[in-house]
Q: What sequence folds into this?
DNA sequence: TTTTTATAAGAAAACGTTTTCCAGAAAACG
DNA sequence: CGTTTTCTGGAAAACGTTTTCTTATAAAAA
């Protein structure tokens, strides 16, 4: 392996000089830079990140943390969108990001988790859907041993940023549009996770609209699960005018239940996943650009790691009406 | 940061002794081991992988390589299954795996790619769906600079293993079962990528059956794309008795086309993805356990990196009939 | 001209491990 | 009882960088 030492010899300069060129130090003449770059090209030198990390005590390594339970539902395309967005941005910025799935995050212990990240040399985290129950992970984030960006969870501090859409507003808006011009009064609202931040926010949006329009809303927790939503729909839909769901996956569950019950009720979704197109229905929903969100999260993490301090980032959402053709063409 | 040096001091032994304990060297007495372990526990010592990698010249880092173009279709759940399988196995084995997406693999240059992996300290690769056109990546694999495991591509050597189902047999079997007891003679076969190994193998299976049953098979390349399959079905299905597809995604495309054309033709798929359930149809297909395949691939890579030599691994497939309920319950 | 300041480049220690080599003690052997 | 072998543990070099400190030179100020 050709090292910085070989480059130095070839260029006729000191090792430290080569290092300075590599790291864009100011005090090095253009002439020397030239020589060094020539030598690097001639020898095909590739800097050794390992040695660099050891010496500088900075690895620049980061992790994308996902809740493995979310993937029990193989059709959930959101995690993949997060992964694609994060990894591509990381590659673009020459960052080093590994993807980690945790199961039972809620029950994990702090020592273990810290040890895992530390031994991997991880310095920054992008955490997806941290829930209220994940106290250990929350502690880790607050321990100030790592820089973190939370997708869809609050927690801004010196070392932590937060990135999300305005869930309250989005739920309010999509439900309003969905109900526009109709006279639906009795609503079944299928909420997400009990301890999820986004679920709470969306529920607030729903309640706000209910107050405004004088709706009668029955709230049930569907855990973002298609199956749960299906059961709850079976149980409650008959006496309702319409069903509003905190996720598209639950909306699909609701629709399937309605087909099985052989009754019609309009359904409103949330997320704008393309799977929806395969159910062959039309539906109001909120489109989130998950790839973009993850990509922004990585960029924000880079900023934090360069010394910036945490901030709350709200990304825009869109109201759409998903159609069969969205996917096909 | 507490180092091996601190542990040595605390335990009253030499640094090298601690290292030996850490790496399970034989020549160290139980008594000493005990002392060292005690010191490690007391100090909460975490070995520094960076330093270890530098010193031993072994990073143990690996990469999962995916073709980004495949993910243009957000509903394709297969890449995610690969990722989950690979990452979880890596965590279990305490391996270090990063996920990398490449676009335009076919046009990449060798220097660049080698440099990328080398600077990241990557020593092993799991490569998904290497196609015949990806000559650079193929060269990289054969360069013997890395150990590799190829999912769904041939190429066994000292440094390379291959893992896949028996595609020829699977296509033969599923088509046979699909046609069993029917009198379909004129078949439209939608093949995958022109330069894809699996596509070729599946086509061989199809042709074998065609010879055996005296079928009249029209082969068209659908590129594993739903949209392409839809177009081809529109174009050719009317004069055929049945459609056999080299992937479920294409099968869905075909089904949608048939609905649009308002004609009925039975369709046979391949892959067994759960998305199929959302199309609300029944269909013969081949179920592959993609998570398991990726998980095995990582295990195999570990074996290669420990000095084992390459081998060809064939994993079993299942013939199934996907139903609506497969997904719902 | 002399002194001060600014600039460029080099020397060397440090980062936290691994690993080779060596020394000493204990065990085995004749 | 002397000699060889085996077993433990320690010393120190090495891995490829970064970074601090120092020195030499050139430019600026006195």
A:
């Amino acid at each position: 392996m050709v090292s910085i030492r070989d480059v130095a010899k070839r260029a006729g300069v000191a090792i430290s000089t080569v290092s300075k060129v590599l790291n864009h130090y100011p005090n090095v003449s253009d002439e020397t830079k030239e020589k060094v770059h020539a030598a690097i090209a001639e020898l095909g030198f590739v800097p050794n990140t390992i040695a660099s990390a050891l010496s500088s005590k900075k690895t620049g390594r980061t992790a994308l943390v996902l809740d493995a339970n979310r993937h029990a539902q193989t059709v959930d395309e959101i995690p993949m969108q997060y992964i694609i967005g994060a990894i591509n941005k990381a590659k673009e910025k020459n960052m080093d990001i590994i993807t980690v799935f945790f199961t039972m995050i809620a029950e994990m212990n702090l020592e273990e988790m810290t040890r895992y990240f530390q031994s991997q040399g991880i310095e920054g985290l992008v955490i997806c859907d941290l829930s209220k129950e994940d106290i250990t992970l929350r502690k880790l984030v607050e321990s100030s041993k790592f820089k973190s960006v939370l997708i869809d969870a609050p927690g801004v501090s010196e070392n932590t940023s937060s990135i999300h859409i305005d869930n309250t507003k989005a739920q309010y808006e999509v439900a309003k549009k969905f109900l526009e011009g109709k006279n639906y009064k009795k609503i079944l609202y299928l909420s997400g996770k009990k301890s999820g931040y986004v679920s709470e926010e969306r529920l607030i949006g729903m309640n706000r609209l209910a107050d405004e329009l004088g709706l009668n809303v029955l709230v049930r927790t569907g855990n973002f699960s298609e199956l749960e939503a299906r059961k709850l729909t079976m149980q409650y839909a008959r006496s309702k005018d319409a069903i509003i769901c905190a996720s598209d996956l639950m909306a699909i569950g609701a629709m399937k239940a309605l087909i099985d019950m052989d009754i019609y009720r309009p359904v409103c979704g949330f997320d704008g996943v393309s799977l929806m197109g395969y159910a062959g229905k039309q539906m109001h929903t909120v489109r989130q650009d998950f790839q973009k969100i993850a990509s922004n999260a990585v960029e924000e993490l880079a900023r934090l790691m360069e010394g910036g301090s945490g901030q709350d980032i709200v990304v825009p959402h869109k109201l759409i009406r998903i159609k069969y053709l969205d996917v096909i063409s």
